[in-house]
Design brief:
By secondary structure, the chain is an alpha/beta fold. It folds into 2 domains: 12-52 and 315-415, Aspartate Aminotransferase, domain 1, CATH 3.90.1150.10; 81-313, Type I PLP-dependent aspartate aminotransferase-like (Major domain) (Aspartate Aminotransferase, domain 2), CATH 3.40.640. It contains 14 helices and 13 strands. The chain has helices spanning 12-24, 28-31, 54-69, 75-80, 83-96, 109-123, 138-151, 168-171, 197-206, 226-229, 298-314, 316-338, 365-374, 398-415; strands at 42-43, 103-106, 129-133, 154-158, 179-185, 210-214, 233-236, 250-254, 344-345, 357-361, 377-378, 380-382, 386-390. A 7-stranded mixed sheet has the order 2-8-7-6-5-3-4, sandwiched between helices. Strand 5 (179-185), helix 9 (197-206) and strand 6 form a beta-alpha-beta unit. Helix 3 runs antiparallel to helix 11, helix 5 (83-96) packs parallel to helix 11 (298-314) and helix 6 (109-123) runs parallel beside helix 7 (138-151). The longest helix is centred in the C-terminal third of the chain and has 23 residues, at 316-338.
């Protein structure tokens, strides 16, 4: 907590109950495997940037000392050249519930989404529409607009309930025989709504379209099986629940049945059939490597690998179970402490419809967020009146949540935001 800020002491009895929950948490030992200091006192923004695993810090030092300093460029053929696909397979098995040879780690989510959307549109060249919801993350919407303009497609937009998200029934209103591609997020970045990935994918396929999923807010948090659901393309970042660090490379999944037909617009040397041939013309790799472009970020991919190792050990089912319990606990506290002050929960009430964060709607949200940070609580503000409480099952404690909501209530009360 910064010097000179207000102190908000939690009520001992209630905090004791939260600590008892922490003692009973089957994942409690995993928190000790992350680098965690004393400041902030409550970090509730892991759905934007996860904490660093201690093993990742150690592994990065090893790569720097032994592989870069020790072997220099010899590490490319010895270790590094196959990392994008190798760690992609690990991510597919651990997080995506999919088979090998369909996932690579590379670039940013934006770049991968650009590639996936172009590739998806190329599979339906006779169709004229691309679908996105207007509540989606800005990058997703911006890319749809630019790609639609470039390929002379019409954008069809959905306007879902702001406290939930896109459902198969609402999607049915805008898809049809002209639909080429549908782009959706598995978990809504604002409300935390968890979409029916399998059901929506089926609905898109029934009209002959192709679906691209953004898994940025669900990868490493929600068990899934992309192969079983018939997903065509998926992208996602690795610095949230995968804890790979700021700017860590994203992932890109292409279903096996599409690999021989897809082409992507950024034809760099790492996607060539023979990376080191330096051929006169581009010939794409015959497998998932064709979705690569430039030289991969070795340090970033190694960080992804270490994050995946932790997730595999903890188990996605246990991670999801704690996410459900943490969000239930947060909602209960918000109802008790924040609702009487005029704030409200803007996330789905049903656990099956909710990802890993709880969003609170309140007056003066931007100023409240600033005051929370000054008091040692780090949430995430979203325009115009939303505060996201991001709960990372491997690192977030019940005591953090209780303390954060208690401070939230005290700040809100002192500002006079009562109903």
């Amino acid at each position: 907590m910064a010097d000179g800020t207000a102190s908000y002491a939690p009520v001992a009895a209630d905090l004791s109950d939260a600590r008892r929950r922490d003692e009973a948490d089957p994942l409690r030992e995993f928190r000790e495997r992350f680098a965690i200091g004393v400041d902030p006192i409550a970090y509730l923004d892991g759905n934007s940037l996860g904490r660093p695993p201690k093993a990742t810090i150690e592994r990065l030092h090893q790569v720097l000392d032994a592989e870069w300093a020790g072997r220099l460029i010899l590490s490319w053929p010895e270790r590094w050249v196959d990392l994008p696909a190798q760690v992609g397979d690990q991510l597919a098995q651990t997080v995506l519930g999919s088979g090998p040879g369909q996932t690579v780690i590379a670039d940013s989510t934006t770049v991968n989404l650009f590639k996936a959307l172009h590739a998806a549109c190329g599979l339906r060249p006779d169709r004229t529409e691309i679908v996105v919801d207007d509540a989606n993350f800005p990058t997703d919407r911006y890319l749809v607009d630019s790609i639609a303009a470039e390929r002379e497609l019409t954008v069809r937009r959905l306007s879902p309930d702001p406290e939930s998200g896109v459902t198969a029934s609402t999607l049915a209103q805008v898809i049809g025989p002209r639909t080429a591609v549908v782009l959706l997020s598995h978990v809504d970045y604002r409300s935390g709504y968890l979409a029916d990935l399998a059901g929506i994918t089926t609905a898109v396929h029934e009209v002959g379209g192709v679906v691209v999923w953004d898994l940025s807010h669900s990868a490493g948090l929600v068990p899934m099986s992309l192969d079983e659901a018939g997903v065509d393309f998926a992208v996602g970042c690795t610095y949230k629940y995968l804890n790979a660090g700021p700017g860590a490379p994203a992932f890109l999944y292409v279903a096996a049945q599409h690999l021989s037909a897809v082409s992507q617009p950024i034809t760099g040397w790492f996607g060539a059939a023979d990376v080191f041939a330096m051929a006169a013309s581009y010939e794409p790799a015959p497998d998932i490597r064709r979705m690569l472009s430039g030289t991969p970020s070795v340090l970033g991919i190694v960080a992804v690998q270490e994050g995946l190792t932790l997730i595999a050990e903890a188990g996605l089912d246990r991670i999801r179970a704690k996410a459900v319990d943490l969000t239930e606990y947060t909602i209960a506290l918000a109802d008790e402490k924040l609702a009487p002050l005029g704030a409200s929960v803007a996330s789905p009430r049903a656990a099956a419809d909710r990802g890993g964060h709880v969003t609170i709607r309140c007056a003066g949200a931007e100023d409240v967020t600033r005051r929370l940070v000054e008091a040692g609580v780090v949430p995430d503000f979203r325009n115009p009146d939303l505060i996201r409480l991001g709960l990372s099952p491997l690192t977030t404690t019940y005591a953090e949540v209780w303390t954060a909501v208690d401070i939230f209530a005290r700040i809100t009360s002192r500002r006079g935001f009562t109903a």
